[in-house]
Amino acid sequence: MLLAGENSSIYMDVDKDSARDAASVSAFAETIFNYLQTEELRCQPLSSTFLSACTEISPRMRYILVNWLVQVHQSYKLQPETLYLCIAIMDRYLQKCGSGITKDLFQLVGITALFIASKFEEMYPPDIGDFSSITDNTYTKRDIRTCEQLILQSLDFYLSIPSPIVFLRRISRALEADRRMHNLSKYFLELTIQEYDLAYLPGNLKAVVAACLSLAVCAHSDKIDDVWNEKLAYISGYSIDDVRGPVRILAKAVYRQNSPSKYRVGYYSVLFS
């Protein structure tokens, strides 16, 4: 992988349209994203078999838990960054301490990861009691606090994990994506954290894979080569060979979605309106 723009034959000023927006810090945006690309490869990266240490937790169980966490996230109307940080925290904890996590404690780990992420990302996070009650009081507030301490200690309190949605927004801006395409990309991105074979990928790669598949769908093309372009290569730092396999896995995951679940209805209302 290259940093965005390295050895590219084109130069893109992705932030020119936001130059007058002080909050966008457009003068430093490319430097910031280059830093994020480097940081995500350094911050406790996941292996492709990060569940191998878990004697009682299977990829299928993880799939079900992530599904449920997305529904909880949606019910509390939390920010997208909160969801992605939640899954990143949970997966990294499973990789480091999975051998000690039983089936009975798996949901506790998931809801605690969401509790931690919401405190990190949200201006007004839900109360700890809300997280306890949404498990039908299977876990008490004390249980969640104890689990929170264990997770944070195992991760050395490191929570500044670059979010895939941040990379996707920049990619969509570079591609000048309309609302329809961006929402489709967000839907695909959400599937990447659910699929075990994609969950370990760096956030930037997840984002470019989601955008690439969205481009193909919008172009009614079944070939990645037809939609891959220098913009994607420049902004992400990846080559077409880096995304072929993941796009294929993601396409199969999309195909398996027989109908949109209730927490994705927002995306579908835009896509098919």
TrEMBL record:
It holds the Pfam family Cyclin_C. One of its GO terms (molecular function) is cyclin-dependent protein serine/threonine kinase regulator activity. Keywords: Cell cycle, Cell division, Cyclin, Mitosis. The keyword Amino-acid biosynthesis does not apply. Residues 162-271 form the Cyclin C-terminal domain. It comes from the Eukaryota. GO terms for biological process: cell division; mitotic cell cycle phase transition. The keyword Lyase does not apply. Residues 67-153, 166-252 form the Cyclin-like domain. PANTHER family: CYCLINS. Belongs to the cyclin family. This is Cyclin N-terminal domain-containing protein.
